[in-house]
Amino acid sequence: MSVGTSFLNQVNQAFDHAASFTNYDPTLLANIKASKNLFYTSFPIKRDDGSIEVMHAWRAEHSHHKLPCKGGIRYADNVDADEVQALAALMTYKCALVDVPFGGAKGGIRLNPKKYSVEELERITRRYVFELVRKNFMGPGLDVPAPDVGTGPREMAWIVDTYTQLRPGELDALGCVTAKPVSAGGIRGRTEATGRGVFYGTQEICRVAEDMKALGLSTGIEGKRVVVQGLGNVGYFAAKFFQEAGAILVGLSESEGAISNPKGLDLAKVMTHRMERKGLLNFPGGTNLPRREDALELDCDILIPAALERQITAENAPRVKAKIVVEAANGPTTPEADDMLGRRGVMVVPDAYINAGGVTVSYFEWVKNLGHVRFGRMQKRYEQAAYTRLLQSVENVTGRRFSTEQIAEATQGADEEDLVNSGLEETMIEAYHPIREVWKKEAGKLDMRTAAMIVAIDKVALSYEQLGIFP
Ligand code: NAD
């Protein structure tokens, strides 16, 4: 990527634009914007055929205003210093928006995972962890990775295993990485967390009557016509929660193509069809669209790009018919497209806020690891007994009996997943209103993305101001 158009420059330009609406000292702003640490390493690995290959890997820590740092590890062909620094900066702002007490980080190895065997990927991952640990770029109190493009729970399990081998006896070692499998110290609800967060955030946005009226929409999710691009981890779960809440999925797209039905597509049936036929197309309850990109231009109320960056561009933005674009993916709207949508009155809900559910639940996982106890374990039975006593008192006072089903429903204690989902819902709701307040205060001058960046800058600036400068 050339310097002029680099991803990092793009992120920094967005920062500068938002910063111009604040009154902070320019040196404080410069300090917030600057990436604090950048680690690069190269190391050899042995391929299965006995040959040796040199790998290139990075880890960027953007901010230390809260510790540990937090951010995913990406395995992709185009990973470089610029990209990890840009993504690390975005993580700082994302964490600040949802009050997750971490600084932003991101790491990556330049490789296409499809070109390596599982054994090779394991050797690469373990060696990368070794390099991070010996340079103090990883640890439950230093820097806590998570999955990103090209990595998942399998890699996180290798990471936690390598870390614990390198740090024998370290009590909080399980907190060195998040999104682990549950059996390796992970948390229930992490897999669906980002899609669920997208749903909770959008639900809150759709509750505000004034904003819905301005868009010509009614409040609530029920009956809203929704299009989802990408049915991977984020898109699938987002689509599932929207449909469960009564939204009508009028269009779905995947890499092989797109389908639509103005009356609604049944997600479960679509997924079964896709598995059996190895593709979305020719689904009996839908119509194939000529090109997969056409899904973005379908008549709908809410468009959820949940696949890749740079999907809504200056070329197709004028034809986007949605009233709300919900950025479930990272960076799905180019800056030019963003301007065009804004001018047409389309509400663009920025990625930094709406897809923060994953890092939020990662934070819960880290807390669980440091606490060494599963959420709900201490209180679930206690709550059940307390609710049962309460119902019995009501029965005694009223002389009427609840049905077995009513008792079972009302006396459920919360287990880990209930608590995670409840904490996620609370986080997404609480995080939205400060953004909306700034957005509305500067009505007409700001888009929601800039408002979110201003809120993030406020929070990070407050931390830096209170911490002062060492020495
Ligand atoms: P994923 O790989 O599970 O899913 C992406 C899906 O999009 C895949 O099924 C892929 O086939 C499909 N796709 C690719 N190109 C497409 C195209 N042109 N049109 C339609 N579909 C296409 O990845 P994911 O974890 O769901 O992440 C999706 C996006 O969300 C990425 O931008 C990622 O950075 C972002 N994100 C993910 C998380 C998370 O917790 N997984 C958190 C925050 C942000």
Count of helical segments? Answer: 16
Note the overall shape: globular
Bound molecules: nicotinamide-adenine-dinucleotide
How much beta, percentage-wise? Answer: 5-15%
Number of E-type strands: 12
Instruction: State the low-pLDDT regions, or none.
Output: none
Please, could you describe this protein's structure?
45% of the residues lie in helices and 15% in strands. With 471 residues, it is α/β, with parallel strands linked by helices. The chain has a seven-stranded mixed beta sheet, sandwiched between helices. Strand 1 (37-46) and strand 2 form a beta hairpin. The longest helix has 26 residues, at 416-441. The structure holds nicotinamide-adenine-dinucleotide (NAD). Nicotinamide-adenine-dinucleotide (NAD) binds at residues 149, 194, 229-235, 253-255, 292, 306-308, 328-330, 355, 358. Nicotinamide-adenine-dinucleotide binds next to helix 8 and strand 7.
Question: Quick gist of this model?
Answer:
The protein has 16 helices and twelve strands. It has 471 residues and is of the alpha/beta class.
Architecture blueprint of SSEs:
Elements: H1 7-19, H2 26-33, E1 37-46, E2 52-61, E3 69-76, H3 81-97, E4 103-110, H4 118-134, E5 143-147, H5 153-166, H6 193-205, H7 209-215, E6 225-229, H8 233-244, E7 248-254, E8 257-260, H9 267-277, E9 287-288, E10 302-305, E11 324-326, H10 335-343, E12 347-349, H11 351-354, H12 357-371, H13 380-398, H14 404-410, H15 416-441, H16 448-467
The protein binds nicotinamide-adenine-dinucleotide.
